[in-house]
């Protein structure tokens, strides 16, 4: 692993915060994992995705406009499955039973990804080295985009606020066709060597990729023909990719969040404890919008998620108040945008500013 460490000698902030959060769960006498609120989402989203897919495959004479709209709707539903089911399960917070988490985590393969690679990329690299340029794979879009001041500027970046969102739309296509295979064959996530995959994980990788290709490429082409499949596949993935990318971009690449650069030359010690680093590099958005909270699986409460990734998102609205109070107690700034529109506007302003040629 990288020689980047945090000043965790005292951890006074996190110790106090964890004590306050633990007290909340003890007093309420509830588990930190998912509950009926999460399981009801699964019961709605999973059958919904299956139904839409079946309609598209089994009704080849469907009007083209309606078929495209259903493909876009399927993209939205699959994104929500990723936010709600896959994300909690990969963090081990979906259920108190490990086998349930492992099973539900495989829903990432439904989106064209791979659970093993996602867990290493997201749980280990991103959640440990959040917004550390040179380590965090989530801000490693260079040379396509410049997401922090320490990244090299290139002339095309002056237009990244224009083409950025179009680029985001190709996230899921790049995920399936390029990024997973690159990480798999290189056995590396950005600059971090992956832990060795055992035989079972190699089998899961190739079988799931084959099944994804069968269900989303081969069967639709056989049933519908090349052109209907192509337009539908593109519509589905552009919707899925844009939705996934925007939600995750709003967590860290917005105004007021902090970035750190690691050049891999020497050991580096972050002056703050890990928990304070998480607060300073992360932002919430639309915390009072119940629909957005439901749809994005609590990922609008990113500060709480980064501090307590093994607590289900169902509980984030409740512990949000505790986190804010503890941050205030320790005089730590808390990044939050009142609406999703405000967060998107902030992200737009930031990438536009970063696109300007540095003086």
Automatic annotation (TrEMBL):
Keywords noted in UniProt: Membrane, Transmembrane, Transmembrane helix
One GO BP: lipid biosynthetic process
Gene Ontology terms: cellular component: membrane
Ranges annotated as spanning the membrane: 38-59, 66-86, 162-182, 203-223, 229-251
Keyword Transmembrane: yes
GO molecular function: oxidoreductase activity, acting on paired donors, with oxidation of a pair of donors resulting in the reduction of molecular oxygen to two molecules of water
Domain Fatty acid desaturase intervals: 65-337
Domain of life: Bacteria
Pfam families attached to this UniProt entry: FA_desaturase
Protein name: Fatty acid desaturase
């Amino acid at each position: 692993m990288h020689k980047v460490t945090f000043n965790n000698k005292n951890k006074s902030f996190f110790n106090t915060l964890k004590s306050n959060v633990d007290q909340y769960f003890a007093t309420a006498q509830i588990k930190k994992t998912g509950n009926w609120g999460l399981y009801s989402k699964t019961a709605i989203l999973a059958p919904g995705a299956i139904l839409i897919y079946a309609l598209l495959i089994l009704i080849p004479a469907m009007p083209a406009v309606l078929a495209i709209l259903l493909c876009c709707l399927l993209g939205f539903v699959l994104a929500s499955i990723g936010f709600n089911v896959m994300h909690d399960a990969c963090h081990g917070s979906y259920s108190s039973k490990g086998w349930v988490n492992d099973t539900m985590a495989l829903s990432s393969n439904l989106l064209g990804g791979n659970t093993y690679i996602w867990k290493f990329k997201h749980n280990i690299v991103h959640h440990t080295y959040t917004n550390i340029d040179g380590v965090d794979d989530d801000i490693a879009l260079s040379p396509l985009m410049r997401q922090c001041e320490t990244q090299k500027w290139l002339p095309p970046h002056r237009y990244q606020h224009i083409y950025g969102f179009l680029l985001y739309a190709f996230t899921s296509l790049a995920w399936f066709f390029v990024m997973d295979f690159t990480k798999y064959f290189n056995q590396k996530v950005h600059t971090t060597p992956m832990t060795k995959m055992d035989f079972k994980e190699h089998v899961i990788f190739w079988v799931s990729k084959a099944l994804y290709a069968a269900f989303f490429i081969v069967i639709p082409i056989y049933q519908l023909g090349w052109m209907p499949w192509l337009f539908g596949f593109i519509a589905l993935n552009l919707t899925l990719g844009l939705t996934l990318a925007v939600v995750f971009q709003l967590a860290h690449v917005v105004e007021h969040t902090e970035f750190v650069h690691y050049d891999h030359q020497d050991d580096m010690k972050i002056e703050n404890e890990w928990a304070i680093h998480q607060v300073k590099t992360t932002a919430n958005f639309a915390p009072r919008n119940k629909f957005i909270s439901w749809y994005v699986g609590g990922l609008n409460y990113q500060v709480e998620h980064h501090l307590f990734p093994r607590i289900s998102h169902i509980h984030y609205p409740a512990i949000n108040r505790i986190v804010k109070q503890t941050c205030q107690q320790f005089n730590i700034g808390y990044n939050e945008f009142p609406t999703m529109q405000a967060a998107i506007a902030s992200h737009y302003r930031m990438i536009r500013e970063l696109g300007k040629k540095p003086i």
